[in-house]
Design a protein that fits this description.
heterodimer, A: 3 helices, B: 498 residues, alpha/beta, eleven-stranded mixed beta sheet, 16 helices
């Protein structure tokens, strides 16, 4: 099912991606082709199956112990805007 | 001193016998990189000072004679998607072009404690999205066997740097073939371990349920040595297995008489694999038979769904993993220190996100984020992501069934030899189909190795061996036996102008 540029717009908003008009048109075409390709999965026989998401066990736990970490300043300095010991962001409210 | 053919084993012997020091060895490789990398563009960052300092420390370790790792003092390249403390790590994306990690990936930490020498960070498709290294935001890498061709991807820089002797070995990552396919295209050995065998901590995440770090090296023995050094449970990665790590080198040379090798018909269809590549693999199968293995025809019926499953699962997980690149904590951002300037670039918080991501990400990253966002969104989750997960279970089941009848499965690694730069990169689907033989093992979490098995049109051909979960030993032994009996390495030396 081909995607319209409006649908691409909607997805881009969900994904927080600003796209140019040119990109929207290009991606509408490419994404439609990809989605058409993966459509074939609906023909696969999936009787008697549970979905498989990941190997290994779930809920591996560890002790809740504090371990020292010394590079805090480097982490804060990586942010594009800082103030003191904080990362600065635009107002949320 | 010719360094054309140094394996880890060769280099370790030279170091142990004091014929050369790690510092001297490192200088040779740094010189080699300076001489030829402009032709290849395998390296993104060369870390000359760090390498020499690490080599000096390694020499001290070697001199002390105490319990030396076989990897001590051996210079390596590291895929730029693996975090190295205080060495720029970019995932080959503009959005992380200046990112400096504050910590090492676990695999780096483990190797550092064993005398790792990092020559530099090597090129890959941005965020590991690709099968040719053409999706790197910093320009593609060229195949050392034919500079007009791709080295494969996403670990193209890793494979090319090993093949061209710009390092002794490399660390790459394999999510849907990204170690195995470039290893095949560049005539070297590439091993994807069992999912959970090696820690993913410090890998810039792509598809959390299939990402695996692993070695790209000149020989099977070398790959086994690297695997040995980095495998094992890690408290920082809860998906790592508590299973003990065996001695991977111990039984390499044991014969493969009566080893049951499964040949899945779905991997040899004329519509899939190139005629000459198939003929090369058929010759290899004959060789395995000569070595005493039993060749058994098998079927893996859900093979045809591996690529479509992969291209729903992967973008879905990618859309989640790439949310963190938001222009807030690190990486490229339209918000910056100058208040007035930043107001022009982004009017509010939403625009900090959308413009930073819109400008910072490359096309393939954006495509995958959008496919994933769509596949996971309300109303589409069941039809796409859940359906893919159900078919994924069937793919895994195919392998589980097969391994009740055979010990290893043998297939071509790639449908063809290295293609030309620009040949496939304007059609995303065409590029995705490069993965037809390598994705299934990734989806099932199984170990798989690619090793050279021939030459077609002057280009390397790779064969793939897959085994049961945590049975790296068997594919290593089968690969080692074949490698010893054939010696393709001596015929696979790229002819580069120095």
């Amino acid at each position: 099912m081909p995607l319209s540029t409006q649908e691409v717009d909607k997805i881009a908003k969900l994904a927080r991606l600003e796209l140019t008009e040119e990109e929207k048109n290009k991606y509408a075409e490419q994404l439609s082709a990809i989605l058409e390709y993966v459509e074939q999965l609906k023909n696969a026989d999936i009787t008697n199956t549970e979905p498989f998401f990941q190997s290994g066990s779930a809920n591996v736990l560890r002790q809740d112990e504090i371990k020292p970490f010394t590079e805090t300043k480097q982490l804060i300095d990586s942010a594009p805007q800082q103030e003191g010991n904080f990362i600065k962001v635009r107002s949320i409210l | 001193m010719t360094i054309n053919h140094l394996t880890i084993t060769d280099a370790a012997e030279l170091l142990a016998k004091k014929k050369i020091s790690s510092v001297e060895l490192t200088k040779i490789y740094l010189k080699r990189i300076k001489k030829i990398d402009t032709q290849l563009h395998a390296y993104i960052t060369v870390t000359e000072e760090v390498a020499l300092a690490q080599a000096k420390e390694a020499d001290k370790k070697i001199k002390s004679g105490k319990n030396i790792s076989p990897l001590c003092g051996i210079p390596a390249s590291v895929k730029d998607i693996i975090m190295t403390k205080n060495i720029k790590s970019t995932a080959c994306s503009n959005i992380l072009a200046d990112y400096m990690p504050a910590f090492d990936a676990t695999i780096i930490e483990r190797l550092k404690s064993q005398g790792l020498v990092i020559l530099g960070k090597v090129n890959c498709d941005a965020f590991a999205h690709g099968a040719s290294t053409e999706n790197s935001d910093f320009g593609p890498t060229h195949n050392p066997f034919d500079l007009e061709r791709v080295p494969g991807g996403s670990s193209g820089g890793s494979a090319a740097s090993v093949a061209a002797n710009e390092c002794v070995y490399s660390l790459g990552t394999d999510t849907g073939g990204s170690i195995r396919q470039p290893a095949a295209f560049c005539g070297v050995v590439g091993l994807k371990p069992t999912y959970g065998r090696i820690s993913r901590y410090g890998l810039i995440s792509m598809t959390s349920s299939t990402d695996c770090p692993g070695p790209i090296a000149k020989t099977v023995k070398d790959a086994a040595l690297i695997l040995q050094a980095i495998a094992g449970q890690d408290s920082y990665d809860a998906t790592t297995s508590s299973m003990s790590v065996p001695d991977y080198s111990k039984n390499l040379g044991k014969n493969i008489k009566k080893l049951k090798i499964g040949i899945p018909k779905e991997y040899f269809l004329p519509t899939g694999v190139d005629k000459k590549v198939k003929a090369t693999i058929d010759e290899a199968i004959k060789k395995f038979k000569e070595l005493g293995a039993e060749i058994i025809d098998i079927t893996l019926p859900y093979t045809r769904y591996a690529v479509p499953v992969y291209y729903i699962i992967t973008p879905s997980e990618v859309s989640s993993n790439l949310e963190r690149y938001d222009g807030i904590k690190y990486g490229f951002s339209v918000a910056n220190a100058n208040g007035r300037e930043s107001k022009r670039m982004a009017a509010n918080l939403y625009e900090v996100y959308s413009k930073s991501r819109g400008l910072g990400f490359g096309a393939e990253a954006k495509r995958r984020i959008m496919i994933g966002t769509y596949a996971l969104s309300a109303g589409f989750y069941d039809a796409y992501y859940k359906q893919a997960a159900l078919v994924r279970a069937k793919i895994k089941n195919d392998f589980d069934d097969a391994f009740t009848k055979v010990d290893v499965i043998l297939t071509p690694t790639a449908p063809d030899t290295a293609f030309k730069l620009g040949e496939k990169n304007n059609d995303p689907l065409k590029m995705y189909l490069e993965d037809i033989y390598v994705t299934a093992a990734s989806l099932a979490g199984l170990p798989a190795i690619s090793l050279p098995c021939g030459i077609v049109n002057n280009l390397p051909v790779g064969l793939q061996l897959i085994s049961k979960a945590f049975d790296e030993e068997t594919i290593l032994r089968a690969a080692y036996n074949y490698e010893t009996a054939t010696d393709w390495r001596t015929q696979l030396i790229p002819n580069l102008k120095v």
